[in-house]
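Input for the complex:
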Amino acid sequence: MKAHTKETQATMTPEKSLQYLKEGNLRFQNNLKANRNLLEQVNDTREGQFPFATILSCIDSRVSAELVFDQGLGDIFSARIAGNFVNEDILGSMEFACKLAGTKLIVVLGHTSCGAVKGACDNAELGNLTAMLGKIKTQL
Ligand SMILES: [Zn+2]
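Predicted:
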């Protein structure tokens, strides 16, 4: 599987992008992987990137968007923050991804047993975590 190009990105729609992610997740669920050469994709994306989707997910070590959707280099923008909530910086990143870099779909990927959401619900307090959990509470 080759890295996306400006031409292949231009053929993507939100529906087709979602379908690509669903197919990738099905491969993941069946412990299959698309046949791709990551080193070749490094080379293919050397001059630019043309991802088709933007995914906001938690930093949880069990929920890597690239892995659970079986995507390669240059396929998706992956924004990660504990609790997968949006703030000004994440929104700015998503605006870049959609308006300037041309992705067609935004996915907000939550997950079960999220420690950040649990911490927000339990009013956990620890250093800078306290303020971050406060931001999650405003979005619950
Ligand atoms: Zn989480």
